[in-house]
C-alpha cells in the first residue's frame, strides 16, 4: 500500500511537472508564434470638412477603432453571453466548454457546438489561417494562452470587438453600429447590442438587411443567452424580444463626385507629409480638408452635360479647379468628366495655356516694372521678330491699342510687342514667383506657346495673386492630419510669395473684369463680379479647329480654371468651338454653388482705375446763326455728345486750307463762336479727344454758316 501511495504521488508530481514544463514551453513558444504587429488593426481614415463633418472614408477595411470604455456594458455582455459565457473565468482555454462541446458532438454524430473561447477566436482571426488542421489548432491554443498572459480581459475584449466582421464591409463594432443604426457605439441599446452580437457567427446569413426574420430569431437567441447568464431579467428579455430591428442603415459608398479630390489628398499626403497611400488607408487618421461639397457636386453634375463641350463627339474631356482666395485651400477639383480613381488626372497634365498667359507673363510684369500703365498705347501691327510673326486671331490690326483693350480683345500682336519691350527674362522671373518656372526663352511665352505647358492648378494659383493684393500662394488639399489619438501630426502652413504690388494687382483685376464684361469672356451670365481671361490653342490640321480651350478667373472669394479638349487631338477628335465654352461652364458652376454675389473692394492706398473713355465720331454737327447787338453774328454749334462726360471735344475753324483750334469743351455738345465774319467763308468741325490715351479721334462732319440757305 505504501509503495502504491508513493507511486501515485510520484505520478501526480510527474503529471504536474509535465504540465508545468508544457506550460513553460507554451509560454516560450508564444514569443515565436505571436507577432504583435498583427495586433495593430487596419483602421479607416476619415476625410472631414472644416466643421469636422465627415465627407467620406478611406480604407482597406471599413473599421473605426474604439476603446472598451466607450462600449456599453450591456453590449459587452451580449457578446460574452453568446460567444464565451465563462470569458472572465478561464485563462484562454475553457476545458469545461470543450468537454461539453465534445459530448454534444458525439450525441449528434457531428459538429454542433464550438468550444473555442473568445480569446481563441481572436487568436485564430488575427494570427492564424482558417485551416482546420491539428497544427493550426495547437498554435491557436498556444497563442490564446499567451494572449491571456500579456493582456487584460478588458483589452482582449476590446481587440475582439474591434476585429470581428459584421457583414456589408463593416469591420469592428463601431463601423457596424454606424452601418446598421447610424449611431455611435456608445449609444447602442440592449437589443441593438444583441443584434450586433448575433452577426459574427454568420454575417451574411443573419444580415438584418438581407434576412430580417433570421436576424430577429438570432438576436432573440442572444437575448435568451443574456438572461441565462444573469444579465437580463425574464421580464426585460420578453419586452426586448417584442421589439423590431430598428435599423437606420447608412452604407458607406464613395461619392463619385469626390473621387478626384480623394486621389489628390492621397497624393499630397505622400508627397508633402511622407504618409504612403497604404498607410493612409490603414492608419485611422482624421484628415481635415477645405473641400466644398456644394462646389464639388455642382462641378460634377455640370461637367457631365455635353452642351458645355463642343467636340466632334461626346468624348471631349475637361478639368476644373477652384481655390479659396484667402487660405489657398482647394475647394473643388475635377480630373475629368468620367474620372475613376487612380486614372488619368487631367489636373496634373501640362497643356498649352494660350492667351491665359498674357496677364501673368506680360501685362502684370509690365505694370509692375513701371514701363506701362493700363491706358498706355501698345503697338498692334503685324511684325516679325527674328522669324516669329504673331498674328491677331481676327486678322485686324489697330496700329495702336491700349493695354486695357489689348487684354480685353486678346490682341496677340500687342502682347508679343509688349513682352519684347519688357524682356523675356524679366517675365520669367515673375512667372517663377507665381509658381510657374519655365525653361522657354522665346517671345511665344506671351501667347502660351510653351515647351511643356502648364496645369490647371498652376494657372489658378498664379491668378490668385491678382485677387489677393499681389501675393501668390501654393494651393493645398490637406488642412491638418490627426492620428488615432487625436494628436495633430501635420498642418498646412500657407506658402506665400509677393509677386506684384497692390497697385498692379488692382489694375489687373479691373482690366480682367473688362475682359468678362465686354471682351472675350463675356459669354454666359454671372450676377456677381468676376475677373478672368480666356485662352485657346489651334489644331492646325483642320481649319477652325481648337486643341485646348481655357478660362481662368476669380471673384473676391475664389479663383479657378477650366480646361477643355481631348486627351489626344487628331483629325477626328478636336473642339469645334473655343474658349467661350469653358467660360460659360465656369460661370454656371459658381452660380450654382452660390458664388455670384460678392463685389471687389479696392484696397486702401491704391489708385482706382477709371473706366476707359470711348471716343465716338461726331456725325451730326449742326450750326445756327444768331444776331447780337451792334450787328455781331454768333455761330452756335451743336452735336450729340458721348454719354461719357469725360469726353473732350476740340472745335476747329477752317479758312481755306488752314484750320485751327478755336475752343475746347468737356462733357457737352455745344459751342458758341462770336463775331463771325461770313465774308471769310469759315467752316467748322469738332474732333473728340481721349485724355487717358492722349489720342484724338476722327473729325466730325463739316458745317458752313450762311445768312441765306
Automatic annotation (TrEMBL):
**One MF annotation (Gene Ontology) recorded for this entry:** penicillin binding
Q: Which residues form the Glycosyl transferase family domain?
A: 53-227
* Catalytic activity, EC: 2.3.2.-, 2.4.1.129
Gene3D superfamilies assigned: Biosynthetic peptidoglycan transglycosylase-like (1.10.3810.10), DD-peptidase/beta-lactamase superfamily (3.40.710.10)
GO process annotations (BP): cell wall organization; peptidoglycan biosynthetic process; proteolysis; regulation of cell shape
| Spans traversing the lipid bilayer | 6-34
Listed under catalytic activity are:
Preferential cleavage: (Ac)2-L-Lys-D-Ala-|-D-Ala. Also transpeptidation of peptidyl-alanyl moieties that are N-acyl substituents of D-alanine; [GlcNAc-(1->4)-Mur2Ac(oyl-L-Ala-gamma-D-Glu-L-Lys-D-Ala-D-Ala)](n)-di-trans,octa-cis-undecaprenyl diphosphate + beta-D-GlcNAc-(1->4)-Mur2Ac(oyl-L-Ala-gamma-D-Glu-L-Lys-D-Ala-D-Ala)-di-trans,octa-cis-undecaprenyl diphosphate = [GlcNAc-(1->4)-Mur2Ac(oyl-L-Ala-gamma-D-Glu-L-Lys-D-Ala-D-Ala)](n+1)-di-trans,octa-cis-undecaprenyl diphosphate + di-trans,octa-cis-undecaprenyl diphosphate + H(+)
Q: Locate the Penicillin-binding protein transpeptidase domain: which residues?
A: 318-590
Family annotation (InterPro entries): Beta-lactam/transpept-like (IPR012338), Glyco_trans_51 (IPR001264), Glycosyltr_51/Transpeptidase (IPR050396), Lysozyme-like_dom_sf (IPR023346), PBP_transglycosylase (IPR036950), PCN-bd_Tpept (IPR001460)
Keywords of the record, alphabetical order, are: Acyltransferase, Carboxypeptidase, Cell membrane, Cell shape, Cell wall biogenesis/degradation, Glycosyltransferase, Hydrolase, Membrane, Multifunctional enzyme, Peptidoglycan synthesis, Protease, Transferase, Transmembrane, Transmembrane helix
Q: Look up keyword Cytoplasm and say if it applies.
A: no
Supply one GO CC term from the record: outer membrane-bounded periplasmic space
User: Could you say which protein family the record assigns here?
Assistant: In the C-terminal section; belongs to the transpeptidase family.
Q: What is this protein called?
A: Penicillin-binding protein 2A
Q: Origin organism of this chain?
A: Priestia aryabhattai (Bacillus aryabhattai)
Amino acid at each position: 500500500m505504501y509503495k502504491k501511495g508513493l507511486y501515485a504521488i510520484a505520478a501526480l508530481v510527474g503529471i504536474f511537472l509535465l504540465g508545468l514544463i508544457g506550460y513553460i514551453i507554451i509560454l516560450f513558444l508564444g514569443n515565436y508564434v505571436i507577432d504583435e504587429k498583427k495586433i495593430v488593426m487596419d483602421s479607416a481614415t476619415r476625410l472631414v470638412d472644416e466643421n469636422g463633418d465627415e465627407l467620406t472614408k478611406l480604407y482597406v477595411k471599413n473599421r473605426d477603432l474604439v476603446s472598451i470604455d466607450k462600449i456599453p456594458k450591456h453590449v459587452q455582455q451580449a457578446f460574452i453571453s453568446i460567444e464565451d459565457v465563462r470569458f472572465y473565468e478561464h485563462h484562454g482555454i475553457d476545458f469545461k466548454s470543450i468537454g461539453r462541446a465534445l459530448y454534444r458532438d458525439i450525441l449528434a454524430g457531428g459538429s454542433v457546438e464550438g468550444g473555442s473561447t473568445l480569446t481563441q477566436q481572436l487568436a485564430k482571426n488575427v494570427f492564424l489561417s482558417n485551416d482546420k488542421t491539428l497544427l493550426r489548432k495547437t498554435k491557436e491554443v498556444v497563442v490564446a494562452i499567451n494572449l491571456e498572459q500579456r493582456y487584460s480581459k478588458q483589452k482582449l475584449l476590446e481587440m475582439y470587438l474591434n476585429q470581428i466582421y459584421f457583414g456589408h464591409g463593416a469591420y469592428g463594432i463601431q463601423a457596424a453600429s454606424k452601418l446598421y443604426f447610424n449611431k455611435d457605439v456608445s449609444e447602442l441599446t440592449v437589443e441593438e447590442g444583441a443584434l450586433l452580437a448575433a452577426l459574427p457567427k454568420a454575417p451574411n446569413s443573419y444580415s438584418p438587411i438581407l434576412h430580417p426574420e433570421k436576424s430577429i430569431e438570432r438576436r432573440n437567441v442572444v437575448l435568451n443567452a443574456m438572461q441565462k447568464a444573469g444579465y437580463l431579467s425574464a421580464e426585460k428579455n420578453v419586452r426586448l424580444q417584442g421589439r423590431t430591428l430598428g435599423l437606420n442603415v447608412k452604407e458607406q459608398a464613395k461619392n463619385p463626385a469626390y473621387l478626384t479630390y480623394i486621389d489628390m489628398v492621397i497624393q499630397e499626403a505622400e508627397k508633402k507629409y511622407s504618409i504612403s497611400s497604404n498607410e493612409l488607408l490603414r492608419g485611422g487618421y482624421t484628415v481635415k480638408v477645405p473641400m466644398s461639397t456644394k462646389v464639388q457636386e455642382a462641378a460634377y453634375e455640370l461637367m457631365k452635360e455635353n452642351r458645355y463641350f463642343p467636340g466632334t463627339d461626346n468624348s471631349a474631356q475637361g478639368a476644373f479647379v477652384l481655390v479659396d482666395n484667402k487660405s489657398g485651400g482647394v475647394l473643388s477639383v475635377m480630373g475629368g468628366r468620367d474620372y475613376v480613381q487612380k486614372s488619368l488626372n487631367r489636373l496634373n497634365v501640362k497643356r498649352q495655356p494660350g492667351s491665359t498667359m498674357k496677364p501673368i507673363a506680360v501685362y502684370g510684369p509690365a505694370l509692375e516694372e513701371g514701363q506701362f500703365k493700363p491706358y498706355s498705347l501698345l503697338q498692334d501691327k503685324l511684325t516679325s521678330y527674328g522669324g516669329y510673326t504673331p498674328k491677331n486671331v481676327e486678322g485686324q490690326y489697330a496700329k495702336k491699342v491700349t493695354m486695357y483693350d489689348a487684354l480685353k480683345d486678346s490682341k496677340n500682336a500687342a502682347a508679343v510687342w509688349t513682352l519684347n519691350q519688357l524682356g523675356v527674362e524679366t517675365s520669367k522671373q515673375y512667372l517663377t514667383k507665381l509658381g510657374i518656372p519655365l525653361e522657354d526663352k522665346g517671345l511665344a511665352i506671351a501667347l502660351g506657346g510653351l515647351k511643356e505647358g502648364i496645369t490647371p492648378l498652376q494657372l489658378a494659383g498664379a491668378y490668385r495673386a491678382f485677387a489677393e493684393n499681389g501675393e501668390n500662394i501654393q494651393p493645398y488639399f490637406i488642412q491638418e492630419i490627426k492620428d488615432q489619438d487625436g494628436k495633430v501630426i501635420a498642418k498646412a502652413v500657407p506658402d506665400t510669395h509677393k509677386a506684384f504690388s497692390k497697385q498692379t494687382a488692382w489694375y489687373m483685376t479691373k482690366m480682367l473684369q473688362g475682359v468678362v464684361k465686354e471682351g472675350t469672356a463675356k459669354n454666359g451670365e454671372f450676377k456677381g463680379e468676376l475677373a478672368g481671361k480666356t485662352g485657346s490653342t489651334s489644331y492646325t490640321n483642320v481649319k477652325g479647329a481648337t486643341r485646348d480651350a481655357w478660362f481662368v478667373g476669380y471673384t473676391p472669394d475664389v479663383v479657378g480654371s477650366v480646361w477643355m479638349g481631348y486627351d489626344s487631338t487628331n483629325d477626328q477628335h478636336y473642339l469645334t468651338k473655343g474658349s467661350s465654352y469653358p467660360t460659360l461652364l465656369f460661370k454656371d458652376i459658381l452660380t450654382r454653388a452660390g458664388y455670384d454675389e460678392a463685389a471687389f473692394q479696392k484696397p486702401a492706398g491704391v489708385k482706382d482705375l477709371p473706366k476707359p473713355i470711348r471716343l465716338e465720331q461726331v456725325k451730326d454737327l449742326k450750326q445756327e446763326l444768331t444776331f447780337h447787338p451792334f450787328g455781331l453774328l454768333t455761330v452756335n454749334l451743336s452735336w450729340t455728345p458721348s454719354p461719357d462726360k469725360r469726353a473732350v471735344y476740340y472745335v476747329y475753324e477752317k479758312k481755306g486750307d488752314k484750320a485751327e483750334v478755336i475752343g475746347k469743351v468737356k462733357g457737352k455738345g455745344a459751342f458758341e463762336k462770336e463775331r463771325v465774319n461770313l465774308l471769310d467763308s469759315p467752316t467748322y468741325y469738332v474732333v473728340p479727344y481721349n485724355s487717358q490715351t492722349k489720342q484724338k479721334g476722327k473729325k466730325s462732319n463739316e458745317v458752313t454758316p450762311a445768312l441765306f440757305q
